Amino acid sequence: MKSISLATLLLLSPALALAQQEVDRAQTTTPGTQNQLDRVEVRRTQTDTDLRRREPVAKQLYGRDELDKYGDTQLSDVLKRLPGINVSGGQLRMRGLGGAYTQILVNGEPAPPGFSLDNLNPAQVERLEVTKAPTADQSAQAIAGTLNIILKDAPRVVQKDARIGFAYAAEKPVLNAGFTYGDRAIGGLGFVLPVSFYQWHFANDSESERLGRDRFGQPQHLSSSSQDKAFGRGINFSPRLTWKLGDDESLSLQGFAVQNRFRNEGESVTQVLLGSAPPSVLDTTRNRGTFSATRLNLQYNNRFDEDKRIELRAGVGSGGADFNFSLAGRDATGKPTVDRVTSGDNKNRQASLAGKYSQYAGEAHTVTTGAEVERRTRNEQRRTVENGVDLLPGLEGQPFDARITRSAAYAQDEWEISPQWSAYAGVRHEQIKTISTGVGSDFSSTSKVTTPLLHVNFKPNPKGRDLVRASLTRSYKAPDVQQLIARPTINTNYPTTGPNTETAPDRTGNPNLNPELATGLDVAWEKYLPGGGMLSVGVFHRRINGLIRNSLALETVSWASGQRWVAKPINLDRATTEGLEVEVKGRAAELFPSVFEPTTALSLRASLNVYKSKVGGVPGPDNRLEGQQPWQFNFGADYRMKSLPVSMGFSAQIAPKFSVQQTALQRQENLPNRSMDAFVMAQLSPKDGVRVAVNGLLASKQGSMTSFPTGEFNWNRRVPPTWWSVNWEHKF
Predict the structure, then answer these.
(1) What span, in angstroms and rounded, lies between the C-alpha atoms of 473 and 476?
(2) Alpha carbon distance 85, 78 (integer Å)
């Protein structure tokens, strides 16, 4: 215990002034009479830490306690508090790397196209699994790691609970509600029916400044301020039916559906500090749209022999989205100058089949083989009309289709070498074929990747709980369809009748992109404390070949009469990233026995993540991977009052200011990031509880500045809203 006191003190000292509770679920019994003995049932509940220690590979697990703690209505709010994770615009980032480097699964299946973490209510989730290194039975498109969202399964006993709450961030409160009903019926049939409804209403104030050149090539310095309002509502439903056919045989049907409608409104005012005025200085924007996704998965499990198991899965899904964005611009006198409407829609369909067979081989080996095939189709179209004329005649409104076929085969062996050593070895071969058709978007692309994997666990003491984990793996990131399609997106501030500037390039895809391939090494020491706490210290290294990065160049293009500045993705030579990850959590009395009494109902947690990266082909300094901050520090505490059934807690995240050299001509500086969430919960009765929470407290301004060697720059920043909520929970 003394051996870790100094390390835990360094990490957790900022949190000691605040408190958080990890509520003990203690059971009370009613005393019996003198002649009657009560029946006492002793059941040990495995904690997330216990489950984490038993995993054959390094994996972080977060169950209902973590999901319920702050009464969140969006899964992204839960994830941003977890070690080594941050969420920006509904996109998950692990190890400081962008969303495309992180794989998101729902019940082990790739999340549907267009899926956002904001679409899912935590009340429908059973647990979260975070894996930093890939495994053979899941896709290796996980250079940064994998998040597997496990939806609720049918309960062992009747479950009926309801939640209703109000939240406020701007102008008026919004409603969120959820209901879950689960039971085990006759004949081994069980079901769970979770449904939730949610609303949002945000207001963002932002400001921007740009020093560049106008459409005639003359210096121009502009300053803008704007306010954007976002409204919306959504519903999601994830029913599950489980049929236990026998002691070792089961059939389950998992549904998942989400639908939301959104509406955004914005106004901006532009001031001219130098040079000519743009076509409009007073802009009003409107954006309306919908998003929906449905999925149905059937799974059959059978242990047809003492040492043989089979798992079969089949799934179908569909979804789509549409939007209509309009901009009305006026000059300084109020005269209309720009009327631009961009509209579009897409439809997605998906079908998949998978099978897995496992067998014990002797007393030490468990061998597993499997195969998967998935087919996705996407039909999309969009159109931009400015002042009644198509922005790009011949392209606007023309549909384009994409067909993606993914197939994979894998084999793995879990080997119990000795009481001290165990290993997990595997290999996976995966192929992705993409075919796109349409005006300006015809191409065919095929990527094949073989990924060997090795995970090793070592117990310094065969009878102890501590572990040393090491992984040597290969992973990859395939380019998505939008990166491959060479259909241009025009910067509307500069008409195609003339040139544009570095600060306002057009954008297009690149059908010649290849997958990024990464070789990774992970080593971690995990110390599990007797009272349920833990300390983990790990390091990682990734060498990435064929890194995809946006280039910026002056090109002769087909959509304009003269040369235009164009940003498009290309494969660079090589990049490396490495880091240190430290995590501590546990009861305060166990972490600091000389400071806290054993009965103190205070739990502490903290994590420190330090990152370093270097991109070949881009001059330094600061030629780091896109968006990867140098470090991130999370800390928090939970506390339960002794005199009242009240618990409270907080969680804070801090990341510093940093710069990224994106290309030889383009550099980006990012503002520091800090935020705090807090909650107070009162248990009014055994069935009723009220929770008050705040997200984004003390948040700093967010934004970035892009600069060029010419002295031109473009920066923007905004003040994120603070989200207050009150939730009532009732268990029937």
Answers:
(1) 10
(2) 10
d(CA 145, CA 667): 27
Q: What is the pLDDT of residue 524?
A: 95
CA angle 238, 243, 246 (to 5 degrees): 150
Strand order in the sheet with 145-151: 59-62, 125-131, 145-151, 102-106, 109-110
Residue 711 to residues 210, 211, 666, Cα–Cα distance (Å): 11, 8, 11
What DSSP character marks residue 32? -
User: CA-to-CA distance for 379 and 347, rounded, in angstroms?
Assistant: 5
β-pairing, 506-507 vs 563-571, is parallel
Please name the helix (run of DSSP H) or strand (run of DSSP E) that holds residue 373, with its range, or none. strand 365-386
The token pair at 465 is 């709980």
CB 75 within 8 A of CB 120: yes
Say how far apart CA 218 and CA 53 lie, in whole Å: 64
Token pair, residue 658, equals 């940093």
Q: What is the DSSP string of 248-296?
A: TEEEEEEEEEEEEEEEEEEEEEEEEEESPPPS-SEEEEEEEEEEEEEEE
Collapsing DSSP states into helix, strand and coil, what is residue 393? Answer: coil
Q: Are 519 and 543 in contact (CB under 8 A)?
A: yes
Cβ atoms of 538 and 581 closer than 8 Å: yes
Q: Using an 8 Å Cβ cutoff, are 62 and 48 in contact?
A: yes
Instruction: Tell me the fold of 55-151.
Output: Ferric Hydroxamate Uptake Protein; Chain A, domain 1 (2.170.130)
Q: Where in the chain is the domain with CATH 2.170.130.10?
A: 55-151
- Report yes or no: 126 and 142 within 8 Å, Cβ to Cβ: no
The answer to whether 133 and 473 are in contact (CB under 8 A) is: yes
Q: What is the DSSP string of 314-336?
A: EEEEEEEEEEEEEEEEE-TTS-E
**Joined tokens for residue 332:** 């300084």
* Mean pLDDT of all residues in 12-16: 39
All residues at 6 or more sequence positions from 159 whose CB lies less than 8 Å from its CB, including other chains = 180, 181, 182, 183, 192
Phi-psi region of 529 (alpha: psi -120 to 50; beta: other; left: phi over 0): beta
Q: Quote the tokens at residue 545.
A: 């070949």
Label the pairing between strands 145-151 and 102-106. parallel
Residue 393 preceded by cis peptide, ω within 30: no
Confidence band (pLDDT; 50, 70, 90) for 76? confident
Dump pLDDT digits (tens) for 335-364.
Answer: 999 999 999 999 999 999 999 999 998 889
Please tell me whether the overall predicted TM-score, pTM, comes out greater than 0.90 for this model: no
Q: pLDDT at residue 12 above 80?
A: no
DSSP state of 55: -
**Cβ atoms of 319 and 355 closer than 8 Å:** no
Burial of 373 (0-12, 13-18, 19+ CB in 10 A): middle
Q: How far apart are CA 622 and CA 661, in angstroms?
A: 5
Contact (CB, 8 A) for 637 and 601: no
- Strand pairing class (219-237; 240-246): unpaired
Q: Is there a contact between 637 and 658 (Cβ–Cβ < 8 Å)?
A: no
Looking at the DSSP bridge assignments, the partners of residue 456 are: 423, 470
Give the Cα separation of 449 and 429 in Å (integer): 6
Residue 89: band (very low, low, confident or very high) from pLDDT cuts 50, 70, 90: low
Phi-psi region of 188 (alpha: psi -120 to 50; beta: other; left: phi over 0): left
Distance of CA 497 to the CA centre of its chain: 41
d(CA 64, CA 32): 33
Q: What is the pLDDT of residue 24?
A: 36
Please tell me what DSSP assigns to residue 699: P
H or E element, residue 9: helix 2-12
